[in-house]
Amino acid sequence: MILLNGSPETRIDIADRGFQYGDGCYTTMLARHGKILALPLHIARLMSNTQALAINVSNWQEIESWVNDVALSTESDNNAVIKVLVSRGVGGRGYSPSGCSSPTIVVSSHAFPPAYSLWKEKGINTLILDTQLGLSPLAGIKHLNRLEQVLIKKEVEERGADDGLVCDLNGNLVEASASNIFWRKGRTLYTPDLTLSGVEGTMRRQIIESAPDCGYQVEIAIEKPDVLWDADEVFITNAVMGIVPIRCIERTNYNDFDACRALTLRLNA
């Protein structure tokens, strides 16, 4: 199901700035039997991101009702993916946003990736990728400019891995192709600082907030990928797949998944 500004529609204006310039943001959510998990966090992130991009969206209650309508259409599915995309709307040629006063809101439903269930159960094999992320004042925002991720995913597929871990131009660990990363040493969880690069995921936030209840402290770290070779446990997270353990990075294997289990139980409680 697809709703464009609340109405069933599959076509968008060619002058829409989301298409022309990637001028907007989005969020991707998990719906379980038609009910979206952590919806307030996703709406809050959309509000924060549109504010940061100076996109004036005022009808948030209406948008939330559209989201719930699309989610309800997946009620018969155990799991489904719901995506909300916000663009600045239709504008003229050129970069200036002047005159764009009607944002475009697209809410769509998608099948749950079948690989995710197997990943959560068995874990994944990953690589440190050659593709790097640039440093950006838009770091943290889930904006529509995803060319870096396209190239990252292309490298993952070409190298035959389940996923890949990405560094920024300074060589510091940032994230995986479409998820955040955590590693554990003892009772401390570490996750990369996203001040200069990467996306602040809603599941990342839930992990940071829930970890103390599971007996773990969390530190935001600026580290090279070498730090992973000595980690007790490594996992990746996003809102759709949840928590996925990493079993292997390059030639380093991991067999301890205590934090994964504890946090998964905590979030599913």
TrEMBL record:
Q: Name one Pfam family in it.
A: Aminotran_4
Q: Which CDD domains match?
A: ADCL_like
Reactions catalysed: 4-amino-4-deoxychorismate = 4-aminobenzoate + pyruvate + H(+)
Q: What is its EC number?
A: 4.1.3.38
Q: What are the names of the required cofactors?
A: pyridoxal 5'-phosphate
Q: Which Gene3D superfamilies match?
A: 3.30.470.10, D-amino Acid Aminotransferase, subunit A, domain 2
- Give any GO molecular function from the UniProt entry: pyridoxal phosphate binding
Which branch of life, at top level?
A: Bacteria
Q: Single GO cellular component annotation?
A: cytosol
Which pathway does the UniProt entry assign to this protein? Cofactor biosynthesis; tetrahydrofolate biosynthesis; 4-aminobenzoate from chorismate: step 2/2
Keyword vocabulary terms for this entry? Folate biosynthesis, Lyase, Pyridoxal phosphate
What biological process terms from GO does the record include?
4-aminobenzoate biosynthetic process; folic acid biosynthetic process
Q: Spell out the family assignment given in the record's similarity comment.
A: Belongs to the class-IV pyridoxal-phosphate-dependent aminotransferase family.
This chain's function reads:
Involved in the biosynthesis of p-aminobenzoate (PABA), a precursor of tetrahydrofolate. Converts 4-amino-4-deoxychorismate into 4-aminobenzoate (PABA) and pyruvate.
Subunit info here reads: Homodimer.
- The name of this protein is Aminodeoxychorismate lyase
The record lists the lineage as: Bacteria, Pseudomonadati, Pseudomonadota, Gammaproteobacteria, Vibrionales
